[in-house]
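Meet our chain:
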Amino acid sequence: MRGGEEMILDILKGVSVVQMALIFCGGFVVATAAAIILSRPYARRWIHGQRNANDMIGFSLQSFAALYGILLALLAVEAYQDFAAARDTVSKKALTMATLYHDIAGFPQPLRTALQQNLHDYATEAIQTHWPADPFAKAPDGPSPRLRAMLRRLLDFQPSTKSEELVHGEAFRQVNLLIEQRRYLLSSEENGIPAALWSVMALGAFLYMLFMCLFDMERHVHLLLGCLTALFLGAAVFLIAALDNPFRGGVTVDSAPIRAMRDNILKVGE
């Protein structure tokens, strides 16, 4: 049975960027403000009973913030690098389709038209696979039917000239490259930040709120400082969550390169 963290991450696949920002930033601010208001009487009685302990709490919070900040920074960099890699792979995939389309022009009819149709259909399949209408739809596990059909047609074809032999070998290479790119994009949808790291981030956010609740100062100052830092902390966690899945929820990779290639370049019968 999946853990609670994984279920929450699945739910985030169906929300927009604005909704996700409100969830994290607003949630952190509201939770921190509520915790400060509810804990003030107890903190004064248990911690600041004989003398004010703000200096010691501030020193501890500084040490904690440094370690937690490093963790958030590393995760943000990792999430952005994965997002950028997926975005580059989508662009390369569109270029591979264009290259394969021009290679297919070297085959005789009717094989040429059949391969062009397979490639055009695969572009549509790729859009539906990586950018599904249902954000909760499970990513396919098996191979692409269109790419398999192209491979079968290429295997059945016997080149009769040197030029056809060169085109045949290059087409095989491009189809195999499309298969590799497809597997990479599918894996990037599943291989986000592990649930264990999300648990550590949640623990760190809880400890931050705990530290903020321990201070003894005027109510409005306490709320203002707590909510401002909670807003920035929520924004940092939002950034990581938004970039964690490059195709569903939050900030997503644009499908425009493949759509443009399908609609403007991959013509059948030309």
